[in-house]
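Incident log, structure service

09:12 report received: a user says their structure output differs between two submissions of the same chain.
09:20 pulled the input from the user's history:
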Amino acid sequence: MVIMANGLSLVTSPSTDAIMGTLNRDKAGVGSAINDVGREVGGTLGVAIVGSVFVSLYTPKLASTFSEIPNFVQNLPAGVYEIAQKSVGAAYQVVGRSPEAIQGQVQEAVSNSFIHGFRTACVVASAVALVGSVIALILLPSSPGTDKD
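09:34 re-ran on a clean worker, output below:
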């Protein structure tokens, strides 16, 4: 994620320059607004998609891993198992509520489920970024046009 954030910081200014460089001064306000809207919508959709990919992998992995621990789910207080599936932070709290003999197994289950979902979500985000960069390479002009209407 840090690498993706650094990459985004390196392309933000050049992409804005590419958009604004193709417009004349009369259309600069409209170009800036469209640039901002595109960035906001893209960021919102990106977070939603990456979050959905993460949750769709984390929750089933956690459930299957917890079910492999003998009598674990049955021995939890009512509602704790459902809370653990809703967030990673809550799942780590379940580790503390687990019997001491299996706390290591429970922590490993939570960690592995998190990494499974996070790794795949990062791969999806990277693939989308790669596709976006190829599209930009193909569609964006290499230099601003001379006819700025």
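09:41 both user submissions now match this output. Likely a transient worker issue. Closing.
09:42 reviewer note: The chain has a mean pLDDT of 83. Residues 23 and 40 are 21 Å apart (CA to CA).
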